[in-house]
Amino acid sequence: MDRSPGDRPSPVDQPYAPSDPPDQPPTAHAKLDQSSGNQPAGPGAAGEALAVLTSFGRRLLVLVPVYLAGAIGLSVGFVLFGLALYLGWRRVREEKERSLRVARQLLDDEERLTTKTLYMSHRELPAWVSFPDVEKAEWLNKIVAQVWPFLGQYMEKLLAETVAPAVRGSNPHLQTFTFTRVELGEKPLRIVGVRVHPGQRKEQILLDLNISYVGDVQIDVEVKKYFCKAGVKGMQLQGVLRVILEPLIGNLPIVGAVSMFFIRRPTLDINWTGMTNLLDIPGLSSLSDTMIMDSIAAFLVLPNRLLVPLVPDLQDAAQLRSPLPRGIIRIHLLAARGLSSKDKYVKGLIEGKSDPYALVRVGTQTFCSRVIDEELNPQWGETYEVMVHEVPGQEIEVEVFDKDPDKDDFLGRMKLDVGKVLQAGVMDEWFPLQSGQGQVHLRLEWLSLLPDAEKLEQVLQWNRGVSSQPEPPSAAILVVYLDRAQDLPLKKGNKEPNPMVQLSIQDVTQESKAVYNTNCPVWEEAFRFFLQDPRSQELDVQVKDDSRALTLGALTLPLARLLTAPELTLDQWFQLSSSGPNSRLYMKLVMRLLYLDSSEVRFPAVPGTPGAWDLDDESPQTGSSVDAPPRPSHTTPDSNFGMENVLRIHVLEAQDLIAKDRFLGGLVKGKSDPYVKLKLGGRSFRSRVVREDLNPRWNEVFEVIVTSIPGQELEVEVFDKDLDKDDFLGRCKVSLTTVLNNGFLDEWLTLEDVPSGRLHLCLERLTPRPTAAELEEVLQVNSLIQTQKSAELAAALLSVYLERAEDLPLRKGTKPPSPYATIAVGDTSHKTKTVSQTSAPVWDESASFLIRKPNSESLELQVQGEGTGALGSLSLPLSELLVADRLCLDHWFMLSNGPGQVLLRAQLRILVSQHSGVEAYSHSSSSLSEEPELWGGLPHITSSAPELRQRLTHSDSPLEAPAGPLGQVKLTVWYYSEERKLISIVHSCRALRQNGRDPPDPYVSLLLLPDKNRGTKRKSSQKKRTLNPEFDERFEWELPMDEALRRKLNVSVKSSSSFMSRERELLGKVQLDLTEIDLSQGAAQWYDLMDDKDKGSS
Fold first, then answer.
1. Which of 73, 261, 285, 1072 could connect to 1049 by a Cys-Cys bridge, CB 3.0–4.6 Å?
2. Could you give the CA distance from residue 594 to residue 586 in angstroms, rounded to a whole number?
3. What is the Cα–Cα distance from 1098 to 1031, expressed in whole angstroms?
4. Distance (Å, rounded) from C-alpha 954 to C-alpha 974?
């Protein structure tokens, strides 16, 4: 039968029985209301009186805050602020309710229009009628409307029986959490349009559903323990949901599984009730919706998806849940032109330019370029790499904005379907900006994913020629499917852990969800990483309890292992270290190389093969001996070589640490034995243990080489040293962005995950400089700030780039070797890759080393063949770099013990501390006058310890007086009042007396007079056969300042007489009266050595 839309009680077109009272049309209700007006006043009058009293009571409650403010004595400003918050809340609520009403009205209008026009009663559609790609699906909406009440029943059971127990078990404060009301309402979800994508893979069906939900859903929750009620009443959700039916099988139900996800983030608007009404306060409203959308995106927005298996034992369920990306797009954001000017001055009378920057989006992947000030034709030159999961569907979106202090102005946007990039391979075009003026220049490259390790060298060689900022180009991607773990160790008290996993590659760390109360967790999550060089990178896996304090197991996997695996894939159990004997982790790791396959681009040839380095297309005989390029005379490192910084980490002290030690079965409470663990850039450091102290002072210094990669963090953990297992005392993280930008950070950091405690750290970025003029000053500064508990501080940074070798000896006379090289400075070494069967290997590898004494250390290079032994060696004293131009040597070096030679670049840079509390300058050849551009712009930093300031005296000048007959000793003596210590530094001696045929083996002995016991005696190390020994050693005495002024420091330079004798030969001595020395300045000074019967003088 035909029914007008206005008579329908609901949007569901379905016949109802006239006698059904709940489903009477609205007109029937109206008649009942009119007839009710003639009834005699009875109970209705009491109800009206109660409503009036209730309304009066609500208005009276409004005055309660005013009364309380007056009673407490608060100002009127608090009342006005509360009134403003209330009015803002009311406005947001009214806007949401109005939006819901308008959306529902539009939905009803669309249904009426569809009923009138789209469906023709009693006749067929003509054969010539065709529909666009997006088709209506009213039949599907009718099915959803019919199923909607039953779906509500299912949701009620799901929330009450599954979700509520999980929430109650996750936190002890939520033990009384319950769902008091779950109603999906009468407004069902509508599918506005359906689009089927033909021509995709035959084993799948791909649908795009444009969904719109404007519902009267009502879900109320309550935590009875805290009398807290909250809920949702009304919601809007709109987006494009992609549904993939895959795989298609030959048995019922034909479809093996259904995958669902949103291609882009859907729009969401929620109407809150109860305590969550506070989320409608202006500012919190958009924040709360954003947080919920982030939760939805982590579950149902690409690359995340929901998989519903329809058959048991579905093969490759992990692959369906998190499939490999379709490809990678390398986006080169080059420039823009013709942008509109948004900056105005003098109230708009003077027109300026713009400060443009660009936002690049592909799905949930977002990148922001740098800001170009005052430019309408900016040049960015930045490169980003994005993973593409769905073609068609995903889009590249670029938005250009003008940076302003308050709100950035919109300059235009462009969108491009990723399918066009896939078809073209490479696109290099100017794209017009929509909703604005101007164009943006993009170069887009589609990188295919190849499971072929043989092309890795070709890809790496190509990437070396790609200019990429701010990140270097990637050569591969790694997808880690984290499945499950077994037999993880239990927590203390045999409690089940809440395991989660941290996966790290270099500075990129991703975390899994936590699985509660089990030692056999199942995660079923996927993680994706970009790789610059999989030959040298490692995957670090840490299985931890969700508190991050307890490590349940660890695994380090070199990615080079994947290069030899079939299809670059490992799918197996991995045994965990630092865990239980049977603890293991099941993962599937898939690596794919990023290959640019386009006729417009030709890869350079791999070095060592015919035609290598011959990139000239016009050469008639590519690769022939006639066209072979000349041997390079200098190395060609990438632009990042030698750009490292050195971070100096001062671990000073801590306060208010928690006590972990217990005695007599816990009856007696002790203290803690704290120490600090530092982790940065793959390196770990550990401080000494301070016994029985909740406010320890470590005063230790650590140094690490860091790069300018954004997002780096210093991880700091404090532990209590115990005999069995160390107790956790807290952690904190420090972002290196501030330190790398400003050069200095001195803060007290609050320890996390513990009730109390804070840690005092000082971080300093040392400035490397290519000049040796400041080396002597740096060495003296390091000796001043170095503590007894710390290792010797670095004075320079050595960067080594080993490019290649030639003419290496053949193996057994005819076969070429498989050479590799080892670069070492002191105890630190770096091993290169092994190049298979060649006498002219190309390594293209670099390494950096911290140098403590550049005058005496050397660079050692060993070239060896795999299985054949040494092929040659090189020893390069760093003193040669100190006299080289800009402290750099870059040429071919002949190898000793063999006929070969290597092309190597060694670059030394002096590490200058600007925040050490030392004002260091030279009097003879001041670096301030030689390099004003380096020093002029540096602000003067006042030290936190003024006692450490030092001025180098004129005695350091080469024009000083000659040494005495017994020689001289160079000392620095000062009092450090902050630590109540007398400090002396023995720098060196010179022109010592030689009594016998051989030079002496000198050392320095120090004694605080009048005490002559062993407690005040200090002794330096012994130097062999030299008249000019260098010590640079620091000694400390703990005593008050007034007592130090009553002492005398006796300094003796001695030499061992012989190996068998205990006698010591006195070479000279000096006695310093500390009352005559300015201990607050601590000047480095030469003192003449005297005989035993004489007193020393400076």
1. 1072
2. 26
3. 19
4. 18
